[in-house]
Amino acid sequence: MRKVYSLQIQYPEQTREFNSRLTKTGRRSLSHSISQSSTDSNSSGDSDAENLEDEVSPRDRLQINFKGNKDFCVKNIKLADYGRQEIELAEDEMTALMALRKSAQGEKPLAGAKIVGCTHVTAQTAVLLETLMVLGAQCRWAACNIYSTQDEVAAALAEQDFPVFAWKGESEDDFWSCIDHCVNVEGWEPNMILDDGGDMTHWIYKKYPHLFKKVKGIVEESITGIHRLHHLSKAGKLCVPAINVNDSVTKQKFDNLYCCRESILDSLKRTADVMFGGKQVAICGYGEVGKGCSAALKAMGSVVYVTEIDPICALQACMDGLRLAKLGDVVSQVDIVITCTGNKNVVLREHMDLMKNGCVVCNMGRSNTEIDVTSLRTPELAWQHVRAQVDHIIWPDGKRVVLLAEGRVLNLSSSTVPIYVLSITATTQALALIELFNAPEGRYKQDVYLLPKKLDEYVASLHLQTFDAHLTELTDDQAKYMGLNKYGPFKPSFYRY
Ligand SMILES: NC(=O)c1ccc[n+]([C@@H]2O[C@H](COP(=O)([O-])OP(=O)(O)OC[C@H]3O[C@@H](n4cnc5c(N)ncnc54)[C@H](O)[C@@H]3O)[C@@H](O)[C@H]2O)c1
């Protein structure tokens, strides 16, 4: 029997370890360099890479790394050095994962784990994968998105003998073939799955259901993947436990509130290039995303109106000094409209007909459902594509409405996700894998679980250390008085942050 691993949570020592890294400079340019590389992955000037791009699919080429290993499929192995630089830059900002590596030096909580994964193949993922290996796991990886792969990073992983099957712009056939190559390999059977979107999980269900005999659990990252798992669970077909990392508190706060608080300004500047001071802004929805966007714009001197359907969130908006209104009542006077509801048809053609000349309209909420863009595709309205992610919609009287990202999620289309936010996600994934892999028999049934609160707190504590922050420790007496364990969890699962 393998011993049950328990995480050693040592806040004060780790704080000191992290503080020594704080003097590193260039975080902003680092973020920029990474994001640039994700859209311009062959910008290293390697002419071989450029030539290869037009050639046959990587699938049909013999690929071999420096050590003679062929168990991978990437765009161009020669990009490995460039990819290694990107990974090292990402490591600087992913301090929590680096701390996990250090803390595992004696112990290998993932020894014996064989993880098959399907996530974005980027520098940040590479830091996660190399961490999982330091923690004792063997991994095989495919991309969950054919556009986000950083080819140079995939090359760097392949050069390190990491079985990765991914390149930017895979065809649909290639996509499934890459997933298949990860799973269908002689003499190696996965016992853990890390998925983002559920494609890997469902491929295994469809093609290799026998593998589930050995699989101890699934860690799923995306809302879509979690819906698919719940679906399986309801149908009684989920045969292993799964952890939903998307809804862990730390990740939610960073993805929805803090990330949007920063990226709304960046996205609006990059696209519409507007001045925020004194502008009137209508924000539809005052949940996490709406609160982040409102806080940023209010801080920049904008006059913020909020629309809400929920009286609790509406009251919060009032208490935060914002003006609660119906969109129809303010839409003719505002300069910017931002949807953050997760709902559909929030901004309709009748609202856009009332907007004033130059009004900017964009979506920070759900995919492309919030603004009724279809209603703008009619003969009487002209579309003028002004620049990337910016279209002017011109009414017969000459009025222009500025539509950003054609109503898709603005910051995902035109801004970058800071590595720090991705670090939260990656750390959460690593801890969920450790938890599921080491859980004693019976702790988890064939169902979908949230990350245990204590681990959620641990993710936060690892990141807290970046700020030279000093957490207060409960005394024994206080812990007893509060009925808490001195080292957490500090809040019940129903606590609302
Ligand atoms: N842009 C990003 O980077 C990003 C990040 C995280 C989440 N999201 C997406 O943003 C959306 C909102 O996320 P959240 O965490 O803020 O959700 P949330 O549930 O906390 O907030 C949404 C709010 O919108 C309100 N609402 C719903 N319909 C409305 C309507 N017709 N008019 C006015 N208000 C309405 C709800 O009452 C709720 O308070 C989701 O679709 C989520 O997937 C985007």
Model description:
Belongs to the adenosylhomocysteinase family. Its cofactor is NAD(+). The longest helix has 23 residues. Helix 9 links the parallel strand 4 and strand 5. It contains 19 helices and 15 strands. It folds into two domains: 237 residues, Adenosylhomocysteinase-like (Rossmann fold); 158 residues, Rossmann fold. The chain is of the alpha/beta class and 497 residues long. It is globular and about 70 Å long. Strands 9-8-7-10-11-14-13-12 form an eight-stranded mixed sheet, with helices on one face. Strands 3-2-1-4-5-6-15 form a seven-stranded parallel sheet, sandwiched between helices. It binds nicotinamide-adenine-dinucleotide.
Mean pLDDT: 89
Distance, first to last CA: 39 Å
Bound ligands, named by name, code or SMILES = nicotinamide-adenine-dinucleotide
CATH class of the largest domain: Alpha Beta
Helix content: 40-55%
CATH level 4 superfamily of the largest domain: Adenosylhomocysteinase-like
Instruction: Identify low-pLDDT runs.
Output: 1-46
Given the helix and strand composition, which structural class is it? alpha/beta
Largest sheet: 8 strands, mixed
Shape: globular
Cα gyration radius (Å): 24 Å
Q: How many domains in all?
A: 2
User: Biggest sheet: strands side by side, in what order?
Assistant: 9-8-7-10-11-14-13-12
Number of strands: 15
Q: Report the CATH architecture of the largest domain.
A: 3-Layer(aba) Sandwich
CATH topology of the largest domain: Rossmann fold
- Beta-strand share of residues: 5-15%
Protein name: S-adenosyl-L-homocysteine hydrolase NAD binding domain-containing protein
Cofactor: NAD(+)
Pfam families: AdoHcyase, AdoHcyase_NAD
Family: Belongs to the adenosylhomocysteinase family.
